[in-house]
Structures are given as C-alpha cells and as structure tokens.
Amino acid sequence: MGILLETNKLTKHYGKLTAVNQLDLKIEEGQVFGMLGPNGSGKTTTLGMVLGVTERSSGDFTWFGGENGPETRKKIGAILERPIFFPGYSAVENLKIVAKIKGINTTNMEHVLRMVQLYERRNDRFGAYSLGMKQRLAIAAAMLCDPKALILDEPTNGLDPEGIAQIREIIVNIAGMGKSIILASHLLDEVQKVCSSCIILRKGELVFQGAVSADMGTSKRVEVDAPEQDLLREALKNTPFVLDVEVSKQGFLVSLEAGQDAFTLNKYLQDQGMVLSHLQTLKKSLEEQFLEIVNKS
Prior knowledge:
This protein is of the alpha/beta class. The protein has helices at 43-50, 70-73, 91-102, 109-115, 131-143, 161-176, 188-194, 229-237, 262-271, 286-296; strands spanning 3-14, 17-28, 32-36, 58-63, 76-79, 149-153, 180-185, 197-202, 205-211, 219-225, 242-248, 251-257, 278-282. Helix 4 (109-115) crosses helix 5 (131-143) and helix 5 (131-143) packs parallel to helix 6. It is elongated and about 75 Å long.
C-alpha cells in the first residue's frame, strides 16, 4: 500500500489562537484511519486544510504519495459539515444536482443509494428524512464519484444507537471495497470499532499516532501475587522495567515499560527465586488509554 496523506508541519492560526500546530502526519492507503480528540482539538480544521477549504497558515501536505491540486481533490469524497440538500427534493433529485455541480455522471446513483440503504426511500423528500437518513444520503453524495478516499467528520454526531450502528456498517462495507477512509470523531467507541490506526489530537497538537489496540498507552499493566507478599513487593521495586507498583485486590498491580509483558516479568522474577501464585495481564480500555495519553500531554 502507498501513502494516502502526508502532512509536513501543517499549521493553522486564527489570530492568536493556534488551532493546529506543526502537524506531521502519514496515513497509509487501504485502512480506516481515526482522528480522535475532544471538541476543539483541531480535527475539523486539519481536514479542512487538507481538503483545500481552509487556508493553511504554514506547512504543506500531499495526497496519494505526492499529488495535490484540483484534480487530486476529485479523487476524494468528503463530509465536513451537516448534510445540506434541498428539503423539497427527493434523494434522487438531490444526487442529480450534486452530480451536475461536480461534473460527473449519475451511473453510480443506484449503487450508492443501495450502499447507504436508501434505495427504497429514494423518491421521498429529503425534508422527511430522519437525521440518520440525511447523514447516509450525504455519504451517498460523497461516494457518487467513486472516490479513492472518503473523509468523514463526526458522521454519527447526534444519531441514536440504531443510526450509529447503520453508519458503522456502511463504513465497514465501504472499507471492504478497498476504499481508504479517514474518520474524525470525539467518540472513543466509534474509533475503536471501525479504525485500525488513529491519531489523538489535543489543542492542535499531535499527542499519539499508532494502532488502535491495547498497546496505545506507553505501558502495560500486569496483576501479580505470591505467598510472600513482602518479598514480592521488594522484588517488584527492584525490577528495572517496572514503572509503578500498586496494591490491588489480587496482590499487586504493576505497570511495565513499553516492550515488556507478563512473560518477561514472570521470567525475571523466577530468576530472582520468586514463584508467583497469580499472574494476569490487564488490558486498558480505549477510554483509559485516551485519557492517559491526553492527560500526560
């Protein structure tokens, strides 16, 4: 896979406010990539700059391994704001208008309407649609030109659980077609369920980039116990790759350096003559990891 998007020191100032600060970012093609961060973290501003709708203060960016400009933009489908269509027109009529504005044909219309589960309601007025249906029509409009990449900014914002599930299913299906997707959200659960990699932004600063997994944090936690707890506590404190030791219900909760795990801890303690009666790796939820990363920044 090649590079979908790369930024170099991308920065946006609004007067004295720095919305995005020297963002260096590299996203590979063929994945669902999450941009995670609280409201005001710079997600929408970043997307606006790389889509050419927000003027950058400094820095630069390229798409698809080095491309930029109007022709490149045609390869990208995007939803940055609330979907805006003519309320008195049907889905079909609105998509025809979108196609005319973009200068593309409508041969893909039936496919995208089926993709977003609106084909049966294609002749209904947009004004009669629920919020979830409106959002799905916006995705259909973004996919009308069969883009290489799809950009979604808070696609489930304001939706009920059923609407969120429908959008999530559509995202997974589009990714299954080989499309690259960048998904901006402040919802941890949303990113965890559909994204393979992500960044975390805080006040315009990049504070994390990596896989969406139990390894997002800088350390791992292992719960241990032994018959001789005083000796175990002393052994843990003298273990070079142990960052912290806390008392837990099952003995001790140990934070390990990145790259270390329960196996290496157990082996080290055995070499010191310590036999454990309890050993368990505790995985952090994405929420715990997100809060840890943001608070440390």
